[in-house]
Amino acid sequence: MIRVEALWLSVVPLDMRAGMDTILAQVVQVFGEARPHHAYLFANRRGTRMKVLIHDGQGIWLACRRLHQGRLRWADGTGALMLSQAQFDALVLGLPWQQLGGGGSIRMI
Fold it and tell me: Whole-structure pTM over 0.85, yes or no?
């Protein structure tokens, strides 16, 4: 449905009350620009919610995910990281995506 060529994770927490325009401004601030067919991921401080902004070349999509139990395993530090599809899939499920090996298998917990 929506082609995504690259997944970018912002390490800086985001206020989940932010709307599309505020998040787009945050994408430009953190990543320098919003590229077509790229997805930009943000989480709140507690790691219980995530928003994904996708530029599809025509417009902007905004999706959100809320966990009822547990927390998203977010990265520490500042700046941004590029994720693989396997890392993104593990992140969305709450798995330790930082521990993924070359074949997509988790090596340690």
Answer: no
**pLDDT tens per residue, range 27-43:** 999 889 999 999 999 99
**Rounded distance between C-alpha atoms, residue 47 and residue 56, angstroms:** 26
Neighbouring C-alpha atoms within 13 Å toward the C-beta of 65: 18
Amino acid at 56: D
Q: What are phi and psi of 64, to 5 degrees?
A: -135, 155
Q: Which amino acid is at 39?
A: A
- Contact 22/53 with Cβ under 8 angstroms? no
Contact 11, 82 (CB under 8 A): no
Sign of CA dihedral 37, 61, 72, 32: positive
